[in-house]
């Protein structure tokens, strides 16, 4: 599903009005009616007090429509106008009048902090103060009112986005943003829902189809793409009946050092579970028995050094290579890594200490095979690209880094992101249980396994991150978060593949 900027949402809005011969007031009615339907379906007529806070723009207009519809369906509603500007939108004013016609009373005006109303704790709050039109800092009394709303701890539904959030930068005051239990957002997800600094303002997001112009959406390239079951299944490559293990490649996992052989065992096992036809593992001598015992399906090549890798030599042409897990940063290993990069032309994934070596020796970046996949967690990323001011700058820096080095970067985290040149893909499956030792080694193994089967590097990165998160979610459904360990993720890769086809009916109408 595409992710649009605020400007692109406005353009989609205009294309829709033009092509469907709708007025903006009719589009607002359509969008807000869907929000009402969601609330009505959940509440089913319950006599719970509902407090709706509206701004003076179109987000406020949406709030007024929801208010009118709730009132005509017998709900107990109080409507407030957070009067932060005299510059009221046309559709706000039209719905303001319609609400008065329906209820015979004007909504309650809030003009300062003192006007903030009494609200019973069991109430529901609907937040329609600001939508995607916020473009400057909040005036102090509005910021204070938002903070007061947060202290109430009422169940809160935000319309389109939690008020106080910009769509393209982090808020000046992190507390002056609505903390929503759910955000009902129009047509397409917004990038802020997925970033570490802005994603915590809403517990849940529901994207509703308000019928915006399909052609416009298909033809406009968004600021990013959210990878869901539909996108993932479209990347899947079928296995042919008359195929053999050679069809699916012979990958090589290079890593491990004394005490860290487990990392490369996990990666190799994950590559095989993802469908690589054959897998070899390159380890120091001390890893030989461990690998042969832990993973009889793998072949093992050993370095002459007992405890660490000091020379990377192998006598076959791997279809894909994953390197770095548990490899350490010993000088001898750095040398071996450098001469490996000098000659390697195979599709490559670099993880863990491989990334740390690159960060310490940036000249090695020039030696990467085209479209090499780097899989840093935030700390490793910081070593590679240095500090960033906020999540938006981080994305821009990674895009430049990707362009400069012709590489694909996976920023690992709660919503892992895949960046290649100017393209951004957001993955939002996975769970906090996956923040556990070896989880990253498994991801590298999955991606190497996909590369080995002929997936393009970009597809392997996107699909790999999705499968990894999906397998982790399947474990968490059975065992919860705490007990989840990396081997469990490997054990559920098979189910993650099966799950793809259970979900394939889940078609994205915006495609
Ligand atoms: N296609 C769609 O997506 C659809 C969208 N719809 C809805 O429209 C919403 C966007 O509406 P919107 O453009 O009127 O902006 P909104 O967020 O209501 O803000 C109001 C105005 O406040 C102003 N302002 C900004 N910052 C300020 C500040 N700090 N302090 C004071 N004032 C400030 C600024 O105006 P300015 O003063 O800059 O002229 C801004 O315009 C969207 O989120 C969705 O709910 C649906 O109805 C239909 C389909
Ligand atoms: K809002």
Automatic annotation (TrEMBL):
Domain YjeF N-terminal: 9-218
Lineage: Bacteria, Pseudomonadati, Bacteroidota, Flavobacteriia, Flavobacteriales
Function as written in the Swiss-Prot or TrEMBL entry: Catalyzes the epimerization of the S- and R-forms of NAD(P)HX, a damaged form of NAD(P)H that is a result of enzymatic or heat-dependent hydration. This is a prerequisite for the S-specific NAD(P)H-hydrate dehydratase to allow the repair of both epimers of NAD(P)HX. Bifunctional enzyme that catalyzes the epimerization of the S- and R-forms of NAD(P)HX and the dehydration of the S-form of NAD(P)HX at the expense of ADP, which is converted to AMP. This allows the repair of both epimers of NAD(P)HX, a damaged form of NAD(P)H that is a result of enzymatic or heat-dependent hydration.
Source domain of life: Bacteria
Binding residues for (6S)-NADPHX: 58-62, 131-137, 160, 326, 377, 441
EC number(s) recorded for this UniProt protein: 4.2.1.136, 5.1.99.6
Catalytic activity: (6R)-NADHX = (6S)-NADHX; (6S)-NADPHX + ADP = AMP + phosphate + NADPH + H(+); (6R)-NADPHX = (6S)-NADPHX; (6S)-NADHX + ADP = AMP + phosphate + NADH + H(+)
Protein name: Bifunctional NAD(P)H-hydrate repair enzyme
YjeF C-terminal domain: residues covered: 228-500
Origin species: Aquimarina algicola
């Amino acid at each position: 599903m595409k992710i649009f900027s605020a400007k692109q949402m406005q353009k989609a809005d205009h294309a829709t009005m033009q092509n469907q011969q709708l007025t903006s007031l009719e589009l607002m009615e359509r969008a807000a009616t869907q929000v009402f339907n969601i609330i009505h379906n959940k509440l089913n007529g319950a006599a719970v007090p509902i407090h709706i806070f509206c701004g003076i723009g179109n987000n406020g207009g949406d709030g007024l429509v929801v208010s009118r519809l709730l009132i005509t369906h017998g709900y107990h509603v109080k409507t407030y106008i957070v009067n932060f500007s005299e510059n009221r939108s046309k559709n706000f004013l039209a719905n303001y009048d319609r609400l008065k016609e329906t209820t015979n009373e004007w909504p309650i005006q809030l003009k300062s902090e003192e006007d903030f109303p009494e609200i019973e704790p069991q109430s529901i709050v609907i937040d329609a103060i600001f939508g995607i039109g916020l473009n400057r800092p909040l005036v102090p009394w509005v910021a204070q009112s938002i903070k007061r709303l947060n202290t109430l701890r009422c169940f809160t539904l935000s319309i389109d986005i939690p008020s106080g959030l910009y769509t393209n930068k982090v808020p000046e005051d992190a507390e002056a943003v609505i903390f929503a239990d759910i955000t009902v957002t129009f047509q397409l997800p917004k990038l802020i829902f997925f970033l570490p600094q802005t994603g915590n303002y809403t517990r849940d997001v529901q994207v509703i189809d308000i019928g915006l112009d399909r052609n416009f959406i298909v033809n406009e390239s968004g600021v990013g793409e959210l990878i869901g079951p539909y996108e993932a299944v479209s990347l899947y490559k079928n296995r042919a009946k008359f195929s053999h293990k050679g069809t699916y490649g012979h990958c090589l996992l290079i890593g491990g050092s004394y005490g860290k052989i487990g990392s490369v065992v996990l990666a190799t096992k994950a590559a095989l579970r993802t469908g690589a036809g054959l897998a070899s593992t390159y380890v120091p001598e001390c890893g030989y028995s461990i690998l042969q015992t832990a993973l009889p399906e793998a072949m093992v090549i050993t370095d002459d050094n007992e405890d660490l890798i000091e020379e990377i030599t192998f006598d076959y042409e791997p279809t894909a290579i994953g390197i770095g897990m548990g490899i350490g940063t010993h000088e001898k290993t750095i040398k071996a890594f450098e001469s490996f990069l000098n000659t390697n032309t195979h599709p490559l994934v670099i993880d863990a200490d491989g990334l740390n070596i690159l960060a310490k020796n940036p000249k090695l970046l020039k030696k990467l095979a085209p479209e090499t996949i780097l899989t840093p967690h935030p700390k490793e990323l910081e070593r590679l690209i240095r500090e960033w001011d906020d999540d938006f700058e981080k994305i821009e820096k990674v895009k430049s880094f990707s362009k400069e080095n012709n590489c694909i970067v996976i920023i690992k985290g709660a919503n892992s992101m895949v960046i290649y040149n100017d393209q951004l893909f957001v993955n939002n499956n996975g769970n906090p249980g996956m923040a556990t030792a070896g989880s990253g080694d498994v991801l590298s193994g999955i991606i190497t396994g996909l590369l080995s089967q002929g997936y393009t590097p970009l597809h392997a990165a996107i699909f790999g991150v999705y499968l990894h998160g999906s397998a982790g979610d399947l474990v968490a459904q059975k065992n919860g978060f705490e007990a989840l360990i990396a081997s469990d993720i490997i054990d559920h890769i098979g189910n993650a593949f099966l799950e793809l086809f259970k979900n394939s009916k889940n078609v994205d109408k915006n495609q």
